[in-house]
Specification:
6 helices, alpha+beta, single chain
């Protein structure tokens, strides 16, 4: 099978899984007929949630790809749009410089961010935000540990929060956590 054929097969499988998930979430099986207004509205609600979640996953995937230094041209090509269109659609708005005692660390990528966070944690700084190619840390009186986990493993967030980690946020496919170092 060609690579394109394999991609097409994966896309069909994903479409089927998404369709089943949306129908199950709406508890919709179509057995009540096309005039089941309440069931159709519930299905519409589930479709809207799925669209919003997919858009969030896509944006996070693009931002994570940029943090891993993937070019806008490669991102646009994968999405079937131009480099310029991808950049206009997904480039984060420039944020104002941090105010007060926050520190913005430029040049953070998926490859070096955990090392940067380990160094910042030893200096008493903890992660409070992040974006494409930067980390935002805040000083405290404590040393900090930071952890990055894949968001694809169910229950990871709950397990880590039960172990004393604080959820900071996520960039698909990662979730970021912090805690005071003991």
């Amino acid at each position: 099978m060609t690579a394109g054929g394999e991609v097409g097969k994966i896309q069909l499988s994903l479409r089927d899984e998404i369709g089943r998930a949306v129908l199950a979430h709406a508890d919709f099986n179509g057995s009540r007929g096309a005039d089941d207004a309440e069931g159709l509205l519930k299905l519409l609600d589930s479709c809207n949630v799925a669209l919003q979640e997919c858009a969030t996953l896509q944006r996070n995937a693009v931002h994570q790809a940029r943090r891993a230094e993937v070019s806008w041209a490669a991102i646009g090509e994968r999405m079937g749009i131009t480099r310029q269109a991808a950049q206009q659609r997904f480039a984060p708005e420039e944020e104002a410089a941090p105010t007060g005692n926050l520190r913005r660390i430029e040049g953070a990528t998926a490859f070096n961010e955990m090392q940067l966070l380990a160094e910042q944690g030893k200096e008493g700084f903890h992660l409070v935000g992040f974006g494409a190619l930067y980390l935002l840390v805040k000083p405290s009186r404590h040393m900090w540990e930071h952890r990055r986990e894949t968001a694809l493993i169910p229950g990871t967030r709950g397990r880590l929060e039960a172990a004393g980690w604080t959820y900071v946020g996520g960039w698909f496919p990662f979730q970021y956590f912090k805690r005071i170092k003991e």
